[in-house]
Automatic annotation (TrEMBL):
<keyword id="KW-0648">Protein biosynthesis</keyword>
<dbReference type="GO" id="GO:0006415">
    <property type="term" value="P:translational termination"/>
</dbReference>
<dbReference type="InterPro" id="IPR023584">
    <property type="entry name" value="Ribosome_recyc_fac_dom"/>
</dbReference>
<comment type="similarity">
    <text>Belongs to the RRF family.</text>
</comment>
<keyword id="KW-0963">Cytoplasm</keyword>
<dbReference type="GO" id="GO:0043023">
    <property type="term" value="F:ribosomal large subunit binding"/>
</dbReference>
<protein>
    <recommendedName>
        <fullName>Ribosome-recycling factor</fullName>
    </recommendedName>
</protein>
<dbReference type="Pfam" id="PF01765">
    <property type="entry name" value="RRF"/>
</dbReference>
<dbReference type="GO" id="GO:0005737">
    <property type="term" value="C:cytoplasm"/>
</dbReference>
<dbReference type="InterPro" id="IPR002661">
    <property type="entry name" value="Ribosome_recyc_fac"/>
</dbReference>
<comment type="function">
    <text>Responsible for the release of ribosomes from messenger RNA at the termination of protein biosynthesis. May increase the efficiency of translation by recycling ribosomes from one round of translation to another.</text>
</comment>
<feature type="domain" description="Ribosome recycling factor">
    <location>
        <begin position="16"/>
        <end position="179"/>
    </location>
</feature>
<dbReference type="InterPro" id="IPR036191">
    <property type="entry name" value="RRF_sf"/>
</dbReference>
Amino acid sequence: MAFDAKSKMDKTIEGLKNEMNTIRTGRASASLFDKVRVDYYGAKSPLSQVAQISIPEARSVVISPFDKSLITEIEKAILVADLGLNPSNDGKVIRIAIPALTADRRKELVKQAKSVGENYKTTIRNIRRDGNDDLKKQQKAGEITEDQLKKETDDLQKLTDKYIAEIQTVCDAKEKEIMA
């Protein structure tokens, strides 16, 4: 049981790290565009599947579509994604200058990162709750003793505390990165 909870918690941490990568920090990064979906012949496709994203400088991004007819669709998708970026194209590639973050925007991004962190903490707690419910059912069914129930519950709580601390570490690192 605890192994199942551990694997679910590991996946939760991976999800958190992926989501944190999509939050802007004032520096150019290809992961900023992970959530951007482009309308590609009627299907919403990730930007990385329809174009090459390169970072020539710290504050600029160049997006080279594999199909030049997609340039306007890619621009629309970036604007719709509400990343606070203004794409411009020269007919072949899309260039995006990453503006410096204002103090207010940094505070908004820190709030967003904290909110994401809290959501993931809730997910970890839900995994713990499900695990505890599972253990109680096993105890009622006579599969485990009361002592085993207590030990497993304590182990699950320690695991939960460890992952909550890891989430906090990831959130603190992102906050530092945003405020830098």
